[in-house]
Design a protein that fits this description.
Helix content of chain A: 25-40%
Oligomer: heterodimer
CATH architecture of chain A: 3-Layer(aba) Sandwich
CATH class of chain A: Alpha Beta
Number of helices of chain A: 12
Strand content of chain A: 15-25%
Structural class of chain B: mainly alpha
Number of strands of chain A: 17
Largest sheet of chain A: 9 strands, mixed
Largest sheet of chain B: 2 strands, antiparallel
CATH superfamily of chain A: Alkaline Phosphatase, subunit A
Strand content of chain B: under 5%
Shape of chain A: globular
Structural class of chain A: alpha/beta
Number of strands of chain B: 12
């Protein structure tokens, strides 16, 4: 008789690559039985050869205006002040008036000649690495719904975020760090749901490093430090704990859950070292700091977030989200567009360019997918009395990607002449999700989880992989 | 975990593929199955089944199975010419060709849809059978059949109780023997955590050990059931499936400032052993019970379909319970800033309907919002029949962004009198102030000043009328079936009714002037309802044994798991109803069985034959749930504050934002009360709860997961709570005038409910000495000793034995 049902500690260790060294042991027994019969190994694997191994999502909270940043609209400039001649969406967030041209000039950049407005001079220098999608649509006219839809694919139900799906599908590359980290996320408009795991295993959940109200230099993972005991003393405490646990295990008989918990304390102890090391930028050179704009108080906060993203990415974290959000809805210029967008762009432009250049110089850009975008764009029509605001526009807007197997120096899709509706090569949010998963080697139709009576996906029942975007 | 699910997904896909449309046919190629399931089946369901499906067969034609399609319609002409789509009757009909009846009659399909049908016929019209429903009538599914009280099975060995006979019969059939009974210390620890979520005190353990009577354990169970901690523990279980929360979550995370009234209602209900049928009746239709039970209305004419907040009840305070109970329907997460108001309303109804279905019937009704249920015999028409009941119920004041939920007033006559007096006084003051304003003489000015000050004071101290989130009657109406769940594509109106598979074709029509919730509730708690008692009995079993008899506790549908012991489930369900739906009697029935009292001892033969313990050959080891972890830490440290009930949110007012744009977290958990009384914030659950697998409070969940992740270890090693509990425990250990081995004995009694072994005494004492050295720089000997013991206590609390039940 061979008691194969009880995994040894070694077996358990082999199966700890499920994100944050997850040891979900109740299911491990069954997983092992299946793995053994099917000849598959324990760690999750992509469905096909991945082009990207990890994602860095630069989320611009509030909805940056596509027609003032990356998609110029000459017809809008021409018709400034006239009524919008097209059909307005059935549901809008706020009332808007006539057309408002962009206050910013656009120029063509790089060899590809992609247009970028004056708002992003540094990113403009990187356009030959960037793949623009000008035809994203399908979030929601309000922030909450739109932020949730962009992150989880659903604006009305609680669903796992795309980072959680990525962690679920691929696990982590570094057992001492989580698979999914989110740097200074906003707690409003969906909050934790935007990095939550919903019905997926808890280990797939994003680990927040501070939040939007935390100054980034104070942002830390919870419970990672001990103020009472030195590391040496804590080691002694763990020795005692280990002895107590082993005595208990001897009495209980073989038990995978108990063995797994013993192991989790050893992992935690290692993580205590790995996480602060990843969070600290002490060893970064002055040149690197400058590249991210850490020498300028305006760009330093977001620069530091971007630098952390690179540090997590190079240490094997699968999905790093960096949120640009202040204590208001940062990019939400219903009024004060000129001042607000200029301020916001100034804060992120240099850090984003720094991140792209740094990733490229370190050879990380080729298998790191950088995604930039907000929850919607903005209307071509003016909101408010000051002739200086735009409403939410989920009908057509721009996101861009770089690295990780997308076509560099490429533009895809377009909104109509005024920039309201996506019209050419439309990309729905579900399509974007399907495409991101595909770049990671995950088939969005196969990456499913059985819950409440059916198999759920990030893309619900939709989603088309946009192969045109692949390099 | 993910591996297992992924493998299962792959395997189940393989099952579908490998299963031919009929037994004789070869398996269909996977790409055919995929094409059919993604492009053709949804189209057939949406466009054709209405007339050519399970309900109707116009022209004697059905399109819902391979056989039916092969057979064709009444005309006798075949539907297809294999491989030749253009000549096929089906294609000619949908293309509106001459000489053929145009299909569908209410509008031609889109070009892309016709192209899909053509491609399908070209492939030979492959029609795969869904794996789960092959060869069976879904309406005959076990869970939809009446509960029949089964015979008690005969066994070779003498069972202790009828319950055990069912378990023993299966074990004997498998050639297995149950594990020996658990020892008394294990048993009292298990029972105490099970019923109260707290560890037994050393005194309780000792008393049980000393009591050698045969009734000793019965006495323990009775004592625990009578403890207020019982309702706090089991109320929390119910709150899991009622997706209870003190904030809305989703997009606009505003405060459910009065949700605590529902939470307290639930806890009180469990402690009072409120019969489960009554408990459900109140939660679904409590506001309507006044008619039956003599609650008086302020103004009877304003009741019912009136919209507005003045349809207030004046009931005796104790009878507010049923009104508060309807919070069950109202507490769900809502997208309050959805600009599409109709969509918001329908999403809210959907959330209520889906929660109602899963929580009380174990049915995923929400699936039928967009199409007939893929697995269960619940049609879209069934869904909209029920949706009519909920849409005729009012839980929202309005749907404008930001939308406002309804609260039922709970004012007593005295409250109202006080309010009226206040309002009259304010009105009088305002009137006089108006008269005086503008007058220039000194006495008038002086009076004005005094009155303004008085007004300000009065307004500050205005009596707030109590209210609670909940349901009341709305405007009664039936709703149209919405194609693909989209309100922009309405179909025929469906009369309000209950699902046909459970309530039958012939149902008494629901009242024209009421939502039908009272009828719904009464139908639900009819002892003949096949699901209500089964689902609850199974939930209670799950919360005692760690796994349900039906392991998919929230899904009794076709895709849910079959019961491991179907007869036992029915036995328990019928006894539950016979006992007047008493939960406390059910607890006793389960806990006084030999099965509950088994040890978790390992047995190689049984572990090999039944590694998952489906046959219940031993007790399942379990980790404590999030609340029990926290409460136990506080309890053994002597820190637990046992104050019961009352508001959860102290930092925000009702309906204010928990989180606004600033992302500042003002929620405080700095309280030592039991976890059930801490705020439950959607979108940002207390991190200690999140860490230990508390379920997302936005969805019902009767089967919490147990994960083991290093962040949990970090909590025990580094959190302020763990350190504080350890320090307090050290204080208790050092309080008596004992030597070190005596102290270790106290420590183990408090933390583990047992004496330490000699080796453990030695190891822990050595640990204390190590830490005394570690803290050598602390010159105050008493402080040094306390710190050393605290470090040791923390290890003891972090150890497996503290959080794991055998």
């Amino acid at each position: 008789m061979n008691p194969t049902f009880w995994p040894s500690r070694r077996d358990v260790l082999r199966h700890t690559a499920l994100g944050f060294g997850a040891l979900a042991l109740n299911d491990l027994l069954a997983a092992q039985a299946l793995a053994r019969t099917s000849g598959l190994s324990g760690a999750p694997k992509p469905h096909s050869a991945p082009k990207a191994k990890r994602v860095i999502f630069l989320f611009m909270k509030g909805g940056p205006s596509h027609i003032d940043t990356f998609e110029p609209k000459p017809v809008l400039d021409r018709d400034d002040g006239k009524p919008y001649p097209g059909t307005r969406p059935r549901v809008v967030f706020a009332k808007t008036g006539n057309l408002l041209k962009s206050p910013w000039k656009f120029n063509k950049h790089g060899e590809c000649g992609s247009p970028v407005s004056e708002l992003f001079p540094h990113v403009a220098g990187c356009v030959d690495d960037i793949c623009f999608v000008h035809s994203l649509h399908g979030t929601n006219p309000a922030h909450g719904g739109a932020v949730l839809k962009l992150h989880t694919g659903s604006d009305n139900f609680v669903r796992p975020s795309m980072g959680a799906w990525t962690a679920y599908g691929l696990g982590t590359e570094n057992q001492n760090l989580p698979a999914f980290v989110t740097v200074c996320p906003t707690l409003a408009h969906g909050g934790v749901n935007n990095w939550g795991s919903a019905f997926l295993p808890a280990s797939c959940q994003g680990v927040p490093i501070g939040n939007a109200s935390t100054p980034v230099e104070q942002a830390k993972v919870k419970y990672i430090e001990n103020s009472n005991l030195t590391r040496d003393a804590q080691k002694k405490q763990l020795d005692l704990l280990g002895d107590l646990n082993r005595a208990h295990l001897d009495r209980s008989g073989p038990d995978a859950a108990l063995e797994g918990r013993i192991e989790s304390f050893e992992l935690a102890f290692r993580m205590q070292q790995a996480m602060p090391e990843a969070e600290s930028i002490a060893k970064e050179t002055d040149a690197t700091r400058k590249l991210y704009g850490l020498d300028d108080p305006v760009t330093a906060p977001f620069g530091r977030q971007c630098l952390l993203a690179r540090r997590f990415a190079e240490r094997g974290v699968r999905f790093v989200q960096v949120t640009h959000s202040d204590d208001k809805v940062q990019w939400d210029q219903h009024g004060d567009l000129r001042k607000g967008h200029a301020k916001n762009a100034r804060e992120v432009d240099k850090p984003i360019a720094g991140l792209l250049k740094d990733l490229k110089a370190r050879g990380l850009l080729k298998d790191t997918l950088v995604l930039w975008g907000g929850e919607f764009g903005r209307t071509p029509t003016v909101e408010g009395g000051g002739n200086d605001g735009r409403d939410h526009n989920p009908e057509g807007f721009t996101v861009w990607m770089a690295g990780g197997g997308v076509k560099p120096g490429f533009r895809y899709g377009a909104t109509d002449d005024y920039g309201w509706h996506a019209v050419e090569n439309k990309v729905h949010v579900h399509d974007l999700h399907a495409t991101i998963l595909a770049l990671l080697g995950l088939d969005h139709e196969k990456l499913t989880f059985r819950h409440a009576g059916r198999d759920f996906r990030l893309t619900d029942v939709s989603g088309t992989v946009m192969k045109d975007l692949f390099a | 975990m993910s591996l297992r699910i992924r493998l299962l997904a792959v395997l189940s896909l393989f099952c579908v593929i490998a299963r031919p449309s009929t037994a004789a046919d070869p398996p269909l190629p996977p790409e055919d199955v995929r094409f059919f399931e993604t492009r053709v089946r949804p189209l057939l369901i949406e466009k054709c089944f209405k007339c050519h499906g399970p309900a109707k067969q116009k022209g004697e034609l059905r399109l819902d199975s391979a056989e039916a399609i092969k057979k064709g319609g009444g005309s006798g002409n075949p539907l297809f010419v294999a491989g030749k789509p253009d000549d096929s009757l089906l294609l000619r009909a949908v293309r509106h060709a001459d000489g053929v009846e145009k299909m569908p009659p209410d509008g031609q399909l889109k070009d892309a849809e016709i192209a899909d049908l053509a491609a399908w016929v070209k492939r030979g019209a492959p029609f795969p059978v869904a794996a789960k429903v092959v060869g069976s009538d879904p309406a005959k599914h076990w869970a939809f059949q009446p509960v029949l009280r089964p015979e008690i099975p005969k066994t070779k060995d003498q069972p202790s109780t009828p319950l055990d006979a069912f378990v023993l019969a299966k074990l004997e059939a498998a050639g297995l023997k149950p594990a020996p009974p658990a020892d008394k210390r294990t048993l009292i620890r298990r029972a105490t955590f099970d019923l109260t979520g707290l560890p037994p005190t050393p005194e309780e353990v000792e008393a049980f050990l000393k009591d050698t009577s045969t009734e000793a354990f019965t006495k323990v169970v009775d004592r625990l059931l009578a403890s207020p901690a019982y309702g706090e523990r089991w109320g929390r279980h119910w709150l899991d499936v009622a997706r209870y929360a003190d904030s809305n979550g989703l997009d606009e995370n505003t405060a459910h400032g009065n949700a605590w009234r529902y939470r307290d209602y639930v806890i009180k209900g469990f402690n009072a052993d409120k019969p489960y049928d009554r408990f459900l009746l109140e939660q679904v239709a409590g506001d309507l019970l006044w008619k039956v039970e003599g609650g008086r209305m302020k103004d009877e004419k304003k009741v019912g379909p009136t919209r507005g907040s003045d349809s207030s009840f004046i009931l005796h305070p104790s009878s507010f319970d049923p009104v508060v109970a309807t919070g069950f329907l109202a507490l769900g997460p809502k997208v309050l800033a959805e600009p599409d108001e109709k969509k918001m309303e329908l999403d809210i109804v959907d959330e209520q309907l889906d929660t109602f279905g899963r929580t009380v019937m174990g049915l995923t009704l929400g699936c039928a919002r967009c199409h007939d249920h893929k697995f269960d015999p619940v049609s879209a028409a069934d869904y909209y029949g029920l949706a009519g009941v909920f849409i005729s119920t009012k839980t929202m004041e309005h749907f404008k962004k930001v939308a406002r939920w309804h609260e039922n007033p709970l004012a007593t006559a005295d409250d109202l009198k006080r309010k009226a007096e206040h309002d009259a006084a304010v009105a009088k003051l305002k009137g006089r102030i108006k008269e005086l304003t503008g007058k220039n003489d000194d006495p008038a000015k002086a009076e004005l000043k005094t009155l303004q000050a008085e007004l300000a004071t009065r307004e500050k101290t205005a009596p707030e009328l109590p209210s609670a989130m909940g349901a009341t009657e709305g405007k009664t109406s039936d709703v149209p079936l919405l194609r693909r769940g989209n309100h922009l594509t309405p179909g025929a109106v469906v009369a309000r009714r209950f699902p046909v598979v459970l309530a039958g074709e012939k149902q008494p029509s629901l009242p024209k002037d009421q939502s039908g919730r009272l009828e719904l509730a009464k139908w639900l708690i009819d002892p003949k309802h096949p699901l209500t008692a089964r689902v609850m009995v199974n939930r209670v079993w799950r919360w005692h044994f760690g796994k349900g008899l039906v392991r998919s506790v929230d899904n009794f549908g076709l895709i849910g798991e079959k019961p491991t012991h179907p007869e036992l489930l029915d036995y328990l369900a019928s006894e539950f109803v016979r006992d007047g739906w008493s939960l406390k009697k059910l607890h006793k029935r389960l806990m006084l069985s030999a099965t509950y009292q088994l040890s978790s001892a390992h047995d190689l033969k049984a572990a090999t034959a039944d590694p998952d313990n489906r046959l219940l050959w031993r007790a399942n080891g379990r980790r404590l749930e999030a609340e029990a972890v926290r409460d136990s830490l506080l309890a053994v440290g002597g820190l637990l504050d046992r104050t019961a009930g009352g508001p959860a949110l102290t930092h925000v007012k009702n309906r204010d934002y928990i989180f606004d744009h600033t992302s500042k977290d003002k929620t405080t958990y700095a309280s030592d009360r039991r976890s059930v009384y801490l705020p439950v914030i959607r979108n940002n659950l207390y991190d200690v709860f999140q860490l230990f697998d508390a379920p997302d409070p936005a969805v019902p969940n009767g089967d919490r997961a147990t994960t083991t992740v290093p962040t949990q270890a970090l909590f025990f090693l580094n959190s302020e709570l763990a350190a504080r509990a350890a320090d307090a425990l050290a204080g208790r250990v050092l309080a008596g005038n004992l030597d070190d081995s005596g102290r270790v004995r106290v420590l183990f009694a408090l933390a583990y409910g047992r004496p330490p072994t000699a080796k453990e005494v030695e190891r822990v004492t050595a640990g204390v000495a190590t830490f005394e050295q570690e803290f050598a720089t602390e010159t105050n000997a008493a402080k040094r000793q306390r710190k050393a013991w605290a470090a040791v206590c923390q290890a003891v609390l972090a150890a497996n034995e503290f959080v794991h039940l055998n």
